[in-house]
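Section 3.1 - Work completed
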Amino acid sequence: MRNLLTGMTVLAAVFGLAGTATAEPIKIKFSHVVADATPKGKGALEFKRLVEERLPGKVVVEVYPNSQLFGDAKEMEALLLGDVQFIAPSLSKFAKFTKKLQVFDLPFLFDDIHAIDRFQKGKIGQGLLTSMESKGYTGLGYWHNGMKQLSANKAMRVPEDAKGLKFRIQPSDVLEAQFKALSANPQKMAFAEVYQALQTGTVDGQENTWSNIYSQKFHEAQKYITETNHGVIDYMVVTNTKFWKGLPADIRSVLEKSMAEATAFSNKLALDINEADKKKIMDSGKTQIITLTKDQQAQWRKAMAPVYKQFAPDVGQDLIDAALASNKAS
């Protein structure tokens, strides 16, 4: 009897070990719509490196850039369905889930990327990360891309120069209102479709960061880029709330630490990459970069100012005031 029990114990141990050895690792599909060479692309790869280094055999992170899995229009739904586990959409994509995040689309709200960083790291900015959990989305961090510039096949120095032009925009009511304030025609369009639309004349221009303009070769299809710094394109890394809360606590802890480090890594790169890509665009000779005078910049600000009054009730004046306060370094 003792021999039988001993044999059963040994068999149980063997099968237990075998079960552990063959356990499938947790797979995280990280899908995004830009190139690997952009700040977001590099941040996703850094997150993968950190996680797989710290959780070998336990977690595998697969990164899919350039809309390889899902484009702008489908990635939010794909996350809820569990087809991907991490995405990093532009902050403009979240308006349907909370109007408060529209604050990031307001024109000329932030003076520079450092002001944005202060706001996002503050109590109010951090609170916005969990503002969509009831809808199934948990924010894990903000990733910078950079300040937006305007491009077109027409030189734009004053707001009147944009009148009647068709501009590609992200699906954002604020951005739509911004271009209507210029008497321009905003066209909502997926990021992956922009280059062809510029080439064929489906749209006349677009707004984007230096790194996106260069990596997607928009400058090769546009004669002019006006350096306006009129807004920001930043991202929120989000995961499925149910998936996130269902992870073992020790795994989630490592993922949180890795995300915090990948965020710092990506955000540090953002400024450098945008400046480097701006220089590459200048050196290419394929487009002319227009620098605005202070008076011209003031005209653009004035032209877009009505957008604030339109969206303050939805965003909240307190949130707008907190964002404006971030322009003053403490």
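Second construct:
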Amino acid sequence: MSDAMLTAFRHDAHKFTGESHEDAREEFAGVPVNQSVPEGADGDAAALSRPQQKQEQTVPTHDDHYRLSLLTGETAYDPGEFSRATIESEVAGLIGIEDSEAAHERWLESDVAAAFNESVYHPYTSLKYHTLLVAALLDNYRTDHEFADLRLIIDPAGDIVPFRTVFDGNRFALRIDESADGNPSARLGSRPWRSWASAWNRLTSHPLDTDHDKYDMTIDANLRRMQSWSAALQYIEDYAEWRPDR
């Protein structure tokens, strides 16, 4: 199982360097990368965040692999922070980990992965959260969980379930799993599609204080309109970092 999970964390390494899938290198930092993920997990995770029909550029003024922020509308690229040498070093540290659970935790904390999109055609998507979604789906599929049985689950902050936690913040964590263990949850749906708002709206209880906190009201209102899973998860992270009273 460990090797398969490492494949999930390494399968999109070419997106850090702007290589096409067809021309992507087979090794990075001495480890195999850009291999196909088993169980169809990559395709299902992609379907959660972006259209799967013919790809067309959705932001004509932006055509590179750096993510555009839904919060600011600006690129996540910082020339002082993301030089090629820095990216090579950061990515090598991210995908060179041989322990799959440690790799999962590193991805949850990664800033460099959050700076890239999962598709240049959909620059608001997030490579970081696409990869975490791939890992969560793969781990569930490998234990014979069907997509239709999976839930978005709210966990306490810091309560990380190996491979299945897809977000961990200061206030709460989010997990994709079959059993909610009594925690607030909502089913993902019958098939993978851009259904973030649908799942968020159907949670049995919400982790935000939308009755009294104006910032929580704002983020909740926006999350109820978003469809892309990776973009929404990234927005939660960006908003928490920006929030003036955090």
